Automatic annotation (TrEMBL):
<keyword id="KW-1278">Translocase</keyword>
<keyword id="KW-0067">ATP-binding</keyword>
<dbReference type="GO" id="GO:0005524">
    <property type="term" value="F:ATP binding"/>
</dbReference>
<protein>
    <submittedName>
        <fullName>Phosphate import ATP-binding protein PstB</fullName>
    </submittedName>
</protein>
<dbReference type="GO" id="GO:0035435">
    <property type="term" value="P:phosphate ion transmembrane transport"/>
</dbReference>
<dbReference type="InterPro" id="IPR005670">
    <property type="entry name" value="PstB-like"/>
</dbReference>
<dbReference type="InterPro" id="IPR003593">
    <property type="entry name" value="AAA+_ATPase"/>
</dbReference>
<dbReference type="InterPro" id="IPR017871">
    <property type="entry name" value="ABC_transporter-like_CS"/>
</dbReference>
<dbReference type="Pfam" id="PF00005">
    <property type="entry name" value="ABC_tran"/>
</dbReference>
<dbReference type="InterPro" id="IPR027417">
    <property type="entry name" value="P-loop_NTPase"/>
</dbReference>
<dbReference type="GO" id="GO:0016020">
    <property type="term" value="C:membrane"/>
</dbReference>
<feature type="domain" description="ABC transporter">
    <location>
        <begin position="5"/>
        <end position="248"/>
    </location>
</feature>
<dbReference type="InterPro" id="IPR003439">
    <property type="entry name" value="ABC_transporter-like_ATP-bd"/>
</dbReference>
<dbReference type="GO" id="GO:0016887">
    <property type="term" value="F:ATP hydrolysis activity"/>
</dbReference>
<dbReference type="GO" id="GO:0005315">
    <property type="term" value="F:phosphate transmembrane transporter activity"/>
</dbReference>
<keyword id="KW-0813">Transport</keyword>
<keyword id="KW-0547">Nucleotide-binding</keyword>
Amino acid sequence: MAQRIDVKDLNIYYGDFKAVADVQMEIEPRSVTAFIGPSGCGKSTYLRTLNRMHEVIPGARVEGTVEMDGVDLYADSIDPVAVRRQVGMVFQRPNPFPTMSIAENVLAGVRLNNRRISKGDAQDLVEQSLRGANLWNEVKDRLARPGSGLSGGQQQRLCIARAIAVKPQVLLMDEPCSALDPISTLAIEDLISELKSDYTIVIVTHNMQQAARVSDRTAFFNLAGTGQPGRLVEIDDTATIFSSPRERATEDYISGRFG
Ligand SMILES: Nc1ncnc2c1ncn2[C@@H]1O[C@H](COP(=O)(O)OP(=O)(O)OP(=O)(O)O)[C@@H](O)[C@H]1O
């Protein structure tokens, strides 16, 4: 299921403003890649180009290519809605649909895709997705209750269950733990490590320890100056980035000297 991502010569714009310049990156399937860097360097902007969500903002556009298993997501023949199905996303704040039950939340993406499924298949998918998100045991007796009644950490795992229910190949996570307490954060980190056997995972995080704990590869982004675009400074094995990065800016950032 997991897919390889190849990004070539990617420039990302909001209208005339170039937010991110000249990204080249290869991401292996069944791996976790962390994006780190100071605020405003374009981590979230770049992440959103990997499932064509960037362009939903008026005036926003990209140049360059993003290939998944060799297919350019930005080719004319590609339907952006199909891309968003293939590349799931989990956001900073857990965002379950508040009036929907836990089970309906899990099925929400599947229903949006107009996939008809029998009641039995729906029940199986709910269980399988909640198990996949390590939430089943905590909610199996209250599947008909609203998703909004769960704790923040449970809601985030519910959102992950909703994302994996549509069987994506890639999972993008934009600071998925920033609104969570340390125990819930660890639960999500454990889950990320488990999901890696099935998915290609990319996570934006401000938390260096988290990047070090969950990722195989780490990409450091930086800004050359105010008004300048963000750039990928280096990407390498996480152990290398945190022990002997090639670039001075990376070392300064991970050792807390700026950002
Ligand atoms: N909707 C938008 N319209 C115009 N400019 C935007 C928009 N969203 C972000 N930007 C700009 O793009 C640049 C990159 O922002 P982005 O949020 O991607 O950075 P980031 O590295 O994810 O930051 P943070 O760590 O603070 O979340 C910033 O200069 C930001 O002001």
